[in-house]
Amino acid sequence: MSASNTDERWILLTEIGGILQLVSVFLLYQAGTFGGNLGSQIAVVGSAIVLVTIVYTITVYAVWQDMQTISQYSTVEINDLLWIATVVFLPIVGTFGYIWTYGRTPTYRGMIGRLLSSFGNTEIDDTNLETESDPEFDSTVGRTETSTRSESRTTNSSESNPESASSADIDLDFGSGLNNQLPEVETQEHITSTSSSNIVRVTIPDDGITAIKKSPRNEQTITEVVINSHTHEAETWDRIDDHDHIVSVYGWGADPLPWILLEHMPGGDFTDVIENQGIITTIKLLSQVCEGVYYGHERGVYHFDLKPSNILLDATREVAKVSDWGSAEVFMDHTDLPQELTPAYSSPELVDTDQSNEPSPQTDIFQIGILAYESLTGVHPFNRQSSTDCIEAIQHAEPEPPSELNPKLPAEIDQAIMKALEKDQDERHTTLIQFKKEIESTIRITQ
Description:
By secondary structure, the protein is of the alpha+beta class. The protein has helices at about 10-30, 40-70, 80-105, 110-115, 155-160, 225-240, 270-275, 280-300, 360-375, 385-395, 400-405, 410-420, 430-440, 445; strands at about 155, 185-195, 195-205, 210-215, 250-255, 260-265, 300, 310-315, 320, 330.
């Protein structure tokens, strides 16, 4: 551009400053979504803010010098003014465009990720898997917890035809809120009871739909603590259930007692995959679990309690959905850690007594790593005689590579699973989608 009316040095600095401003938008967001501990997040974000401030200050000063120079002349070249105006406004437009495109779906648990995690509904880029027959793979599993059949759904037609899919296409809404009343239901079967809840299969006469009703145990006193716990689970679950691999919430309320109506999945849980499925089918189902949990991560929620009984299957046992978000942590809520952890499916940071290691999305990656190891080898990686010994193993023991326990597995899968089981969160995969793609890449090797 011509600089006859302006100082070429300031024009050049203005141009460089404008480019650096656009780069700084990317830099600041990436620093803000850095997923380390709080201290490292503050250090990284603080450094990025200082650098961005310097860049913006220099650019503004250069523009001011340009304007001062231009004002000294009676004639002003229009291209000089247009360039300066572009430098001033382009970074602003770029900032809004970048945040709108990427900021609404933060992947990490960084500061900016926390602030922006509740916006947007960008879908996950799924990887299509080939559908081929899966060779039989029988195994026996050493386990330390009893599996349950919980939160799932189906239609009457699904029950009559076991080959049909669950009622994922049904869009039921029985409302939500503490004063929301339970619709008329007919109890069909008591499924199980946990330490805090009763799980019952019901039908809804008006719709002819089979559902699962979750409510506090009858013998419990319904205190404010119980209601708050119920509300936290229902609200958290309800905000992320619009995904193909998360069990749907039909409605929830507290009238006459706390209740949640959930999708019924008639195919059992992931225990059946561990015991009966083959390598290809197992990897496909693990990939679906990764997608569902990652969807929660993108919306500021991680699960904390991923175990076989919380991964449910449809009637065909080809679709897996993540259930039981009662222990889920909302990034911005700063809620206390769940008190009822499952020792065999915990992670080093969840059982860290001095709490020096803050749980993060990588906690879910560790738990899915356990599921992958167990379902593909038939052996729990930290199986011990007691819960105390199991916790000790999770903190300190290194399991054998999966391919050494199951010769049918390719050695390439070892790296993905062992990385997910790293003791240090920073050594694990950055996201569940990375883990998903790594284990999917081994399907071609096993065929």
